[in-house]
Amino acid sequence: MASEETTGLAKSAALKLSEMGERTKQLGTAMQDPNRQRRLILVIVCVALLLDNMLYMVIVPIIPDYLKIINNDTSSSTSKNSTSKHSGENNDLKIGILFASKAILQLLVNPLSGTFIDRVGYDIPLFIGLIVMFFSTCIFAFAQNYLTLFIARSLQGLGSAFADTSGIAMIADKYTEESERSRALGIALAFISFGSLVAPPFGGFLYQFVGTFMPFMVLAGISLIDGILLMSVMKPFTNRTRENMPVGTPIYKLMIDPYIAVVAGALTTCNIPLAFLEPTIANWMETKMGTTNFQMGLIWLPAFFPHVLGVYITVKLAASHPNYQWFYGALGMVIIGASSCTVPACRTFGQLIAPLCGICFGIALVDTALLPTLAFLVDVRHVSVYGSVYAIADISYCVAYALGPIVAGQIVHDLGFVSLNLGMGLANVLYAPALLLLRNVCQMKPSHSERNVLLDEGPKGLYDTIKMEERNAKKKGTGTSSRNHMPGDENGIDAYNQHQTSGFFSEEDSSGNEYN
C-alpha cells in the first residue's frame, strides 16, 4: 500500500511539473509574439515613468518636516530662539537646492545618455536607469543627514537620464505607425501625470502613519520588480549583433535642426508654469487664502483628470486629423498662458482649481502633440534612432524644472507672485505662433528607411532590423551572396550601409524632397 501511494504521489508530482513546464513554454511563446511583447514593453516603460515621477514628488510633504528634525538634532538649544528665522530661510534654500539637484544632474547627463542609447539600444540603458533609481530610493529611505539626501536626489537624476530617455525612445521605436505611436506616448504621459499628482498624498500618508522609510521602500520594490520584468521580456544582456545597428544622428546635429529646436523650445516653455508654481504656490495660498496643509497638498490632484482628458482628446484628433499636430500644440500653449494669467486673481481654494486644471490640460495638448512629432522628424529628416532626440526632449523638461525651485522664489521675492504668473502666461502665448513652422511637417515624405529595406512585412522597430540581419546571415552565410537579393533594394545591406555613411537621412539629402 505504501509503495502504491508513493508511486501515485510521484506520478502526480510529475504531472504537475509537466503542466508547469507546458505553461512556461506557452508563456515564453506568447512573450515572443511581437504585438504582445511591445504591449509588455509599454507596461514596463509606463511603470518606470510612473516610478520616476513619484520619486520626484513624493518628497514634497516629507522633506520640510524631515529637515526640521535633522536641524533640531544638530542645532544647539541655547541659540534656538535667536536663530529660528535664519533656520527657516536656510531650510527653504536647502529644499530648493534639493529639488533642483535632480533636474540639474539629469540635464548634464542627458547629452551623454542620448548618445549611449543610440549606440547600445534602448533596453540596457533602461535597466541601468531602474537599478540606479532602486539604489537612490534605498539611500533616501535610510538617510540621516542633508548630504545623504542630496546624494540620493542627484543619483535619481542620473537614473532618470537613462530610464526616461530610453523608455520614451523605446516606445517610439516599437510603435512605428503614427496613430499607434501617439496613443502609446499618450498612455505614457498619463502615467507621468498620475505619478506626479498622486505621489504627495501617497508619501504624506505613509510618512505620517508608518515612517520616513516606508514610501521609499515601496517605490524601491516597484523599481526592482520592473527591472526583473524587463530582464525577462527584453533580455538586455544576451548576445546581439550590435555592430549592425544603424548609426544615429549625433545629438548636436539634432539640436540645430530648426524643427526639433522649435519643438524643444515649446516643451520647455509650456512646462515653466508648472515648474515655477510648484515651489511657490503653497506660500501664496497660505498668505492670501489661509489654506490648510491638507488643502495645499491636494491642490494639484484635481488637475490629473483634465490632463488625462487632454491626452485622450489629442490622441483622437491626431488619429483623425494628423496634419494639425502643430495646431494642437499651439492651442495648448494659449490655454496655458490664459490659465497662468488668471491664477493670481483667485481668492478661494475652489477658484484656484480651475486655472491649475487649465494649465495641466494645456500641457497635455502640447506634450501629446509634439512628442510623437519629434520621432516623426527623426524618421523623415535623420536616422530612425530615437535616443538622442528624446534626450533633447528630456533636456527641455529639465531646464524648466532645474530653474523652477531656484529662480521662481527669487522672482516672487523681487517682483511678486502676480508678475511671475503674467510673465509665464505671456511667454506661452507669444511662443505659440512659432509652432506655425511645423505646419508642413506632416506633409513631409518619409524616406525609404533601412527598416523598409530589410523587412518584408513593414517596419517593426530597431531590433527587428537586427533580427532580420541575423536571420539572413544564418540562412545564407556571411558571404556576399546574402547581401545581393534583399527585397525592395537590389544592393541590400551594402546600399543601406552606403546610405548610412553618406548621410542617407541627413537634412541636406531630404531638403529637396521633403514635401509632397
TrEMBL record:
Q: Where is the composition biased (Acidic residues)?
A: 506-516
- Give a GO biological-process term: chemical synaptic transmission
From what superkingdom does this record's organism come?
A: Eukaryota
Its family remark reads: Belongs to the major facilitator superfamily. Vesicular transporter family.
Q: What is its main location?
A: membrane
Q: Where are the transmembrane segments?
A: 40-63, 124-144, 184-207, 213-233, 254-277, 297-315, 327-346, 352-377, 389-412, 418-438
Question: Which Gene Ontology molecular-function terms are recorded?
Answer: acetylcholine transmembrane transporter activity
Q: Give residue ranges for domain Major facilitator superfamily (MFS) profile.
A: 41-445
Q: How does it sit in the membrane?
A: Multi-pass membrane protein
Which Gene Ontology terms of cellular component type are present? AP-1 adaptor complex; AP-2 adaptor complex; terminal bouton
Which InterPro entries does the record cross-reference, listed alphabetically? MFS (IPR011701), MFS_dom (IPR020846), MFS_trans_sf (IPR036259), MFS_Vesicular_Transporter (IPR050930)
**Lineage of origin:** Eukaryota, Metazoa, Chordata, Craniata, Vertebrata
Q: Does the keyword Membrane apply?
A: yes
Subcellular location(s) of the protein = Membrane
User: Any idea which UniProt keywords this protein has?
Assistant: Glycoprotein, Membrane, Neurotransmitter transport, Transmembrane, Transmembrane helix, Transport
The region called Disordered is annotated at 472-516
* The protein's name in its UniProt record: VACHA protein
